[in-house]
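Structure ticket #2291
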Amino acid sequence: MRHIRLTEEERQELEHLYKTSLNSVVRERSFCLLLSNKGHRIIEIAEITNLCRQTVSSVLTAWESSRSEDKHLTLSTAPGRGAKIKINPVGDLLPQLIENHSHNLNPIPNELEKKYGVKVCRSTLQTF
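Resolution: structure written out below.
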């Protein structure tokens, strides 16, 4: 049984974030910490918040291992997460390529790969 002990100031800040934050990840993580402070076990917190047990454990570990002035940074998602957009380097060239091959997009991925080293599929072009 692992519990996070919050100071009164931390508890008030987390309650404020839980109630007012527009970011759902920050709200979930704040709620996990508040529940842990109330004495709930990790498995109980996971069931209440509908998160994986490992996710709850990671949130608690990150909070415990951070310095007091950096604790609020553990609540948000780290920058750089998620898939990177492949087409950005050649995005300004795409309208011209599409105009040249308006009825058939199949040659465009080959041309992008040969000339610019950007490997994309036809469906990526359609969503761009």
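Closing remark: The mean pLDDT is 86.
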